[in-house]
């Protein structure tokens, strides 16, 4: 079974790269193909034969392990200093491109309430589904976006740098909102909600003011025990304990893994054992295809029906319009050219893996039914796939990174500022 999952992920990721798409797009599609949407269309119960019900809990465990390892990597690469370097105007762009899709997503949830399948949901109210859909619409896939920018050679272009900074801010805001949604969905009254909030605040304070200094001291290259094995053991044990702590508080394990990665002392780790974060990343990449398959088993495009198709169209329109108009409009109002504002809107629309993480949290909480989950997963794939071609269409300087052995194109010096402000003279 695992051999089939890894083989399918490898084949589809290679096909995605041939089509100039990030490899993760192919892995996501492979997960959907191995589910009822494609494999389930063939004669016989192939999905049940390949993924029997008594094996799926073990797949779930492996997928969650891959997920927390991945979220540690996202937190580890999250650079707060990157956000400080771009001034208040980029913050305004980020806030606008979160607020508009959030409002549209929450409004869409209100409109689609009569079509919700409450039998597959664990909440009877409207507040939690509306907040969740708003948060899910607001996400920009920070890791996938960074990969697209790198592959297009935009990592030193102003629009690429600003896009990465905006995506980082947006992801933080969306995760905060998601934490509130998880707390609301899991609470039975005001006191459990307050207790959860206090516990989370205490954990964050401990990570920042106790765990981070302790890690910086323990993992310093000056220590006699310093080395890759100790560093790897400390980081893996720490991220798993942090993930367990947030899960025990009533939040999802991904919050703890992300938070631990964010407080990990990069300077000490990179000085003493720079290969360890890469090892953790490689382990997550090996297990993430299992996560995509677990996701794909809950996606059934053939079972959407008329209402499901309408939901899918509405989700795609709201997702694309909210992100593009929010980002491009705010960029234009803060001094960007029309082309750069358009490119920024296109980049902010990529959802990718981060969206799937959030959607699986929502499915586990019971704030999404099957139709909405399928529509949102499809939206995540479509918005990520369309980013590359639209970027090639609207950004004349967007070129793929040179292959090994190819000469590097000279810098033409035409990188005009995307946003100008007194504190952004670099």
Structure description:
This protein is 72% helix and 0% strand. The protein is mainly α. The model is unreliable at 398-404 and 406-426 (pLDDT under 50).
Features:
mainly alpha, 426 residues, globular, disordered C terminus, single chain
Distance between the termini: 52 Å
Given the C-alpha coordinates, what overall shape results?
globular
Derived from helix and strand composition plus strand pairing, the structural class reads: mainly alpha
Largest sheet: none
Could you give a quick summary of the protein structure above?
The chain is mainly alpha-helical and 426 residues long.
Provide the fold topology.
Blueprint lengths: L1 H17 L4 H11 L12 H5 L5 H22 L2 H5 L2 H25 L15 H12 L3 H10 L6 H29 L3 H29 L9 H22 L3 H11 L2 H7 L2 H22 L8 H29 L4 H11 L3 H14 L4 H16 L1 H8 L32
């Amino acid at each position: 079974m695992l051999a089939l999952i890894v083989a399918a992920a490898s084949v589809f990721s290679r096909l995605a790269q041939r089509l100039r798409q990030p490899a993760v797009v192919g892995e996501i599609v492979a997960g959907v193909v191995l589910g009822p949407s494609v494999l389930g269309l063939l004669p016989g119960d192939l999905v049940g034969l390949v993924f029997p019900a008594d094996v799926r809990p073990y797949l779930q465990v492996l997928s969650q392990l891959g997920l927390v390892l991945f979220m540690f990597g996202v937190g580890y690469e999250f650079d707060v200093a990157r956000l400080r370097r771009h001034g208040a105007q980029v913050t305004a762009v980020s806030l606008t491109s979160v607020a508009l899709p959030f409002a549209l997503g929450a409004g869409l949830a209100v409109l689609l309430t009569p079509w919700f399948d409450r039998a597959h949901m664990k909440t009877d109210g409207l507040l939690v589904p509306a907040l969740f859909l708003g948060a899910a619409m607001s996400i920009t896939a920070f890791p996938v976006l960074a990969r697209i920018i790198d592959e297009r050679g935009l990592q030193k272009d102003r629009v690429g740098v600003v896009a990465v900074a905006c995506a980082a801010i947006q992801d933080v805001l969306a995760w905060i909102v998601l934490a509130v949604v998880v707390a609301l969905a899991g609470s039975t009254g005001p006191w459990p909600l307050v207790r959860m909030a206090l516990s989370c605040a205490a954990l964050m304070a401990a990570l920042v003011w106790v765990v981070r200094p302790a890690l910086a001291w323990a993992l310093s290259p000056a220590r006699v025990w310093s080395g890759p094995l100790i560093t790897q053991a400390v980081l893996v044990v720490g991220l798993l304990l942090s993930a367990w702590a947030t899960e025990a508080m009533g939040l999802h394990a991904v919050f703890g893994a992300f938070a631990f990665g964010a407080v990990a002392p990069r300077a000490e780790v990179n000085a003493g054992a720079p290969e360890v974060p890469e090892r953790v990343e490689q382990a997550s990449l090996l297990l993430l295809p299992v996560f995509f398959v677990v996701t794909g088993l809950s996606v059934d495009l053939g079972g959407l029906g008329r209402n499901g198709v309408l939901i899918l169209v509405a989700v795609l329109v709201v997702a694309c319009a909210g992100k593009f108009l929010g980002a491009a409009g705010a960029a234009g109002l803060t001094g960007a050219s029309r082309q750069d504002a358009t490119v920024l809107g296109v980049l902010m629309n990529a959802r990718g893996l981060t969206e799937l993480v959030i959607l699986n949290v929502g499915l586990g909480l019971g704030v999404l039914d099957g139709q909405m989950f399928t529509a949102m997963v499809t939206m995540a794939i479509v918005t990520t796939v369309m980013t590359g071609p639209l970027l090639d269409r609207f950004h004349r300087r967007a070129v793929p990174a040179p292959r090994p052995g190819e000469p590097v194109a000279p810098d033409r010096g035409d990188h005009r500022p995307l946003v100008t402000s007194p504190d952004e003279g670099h």
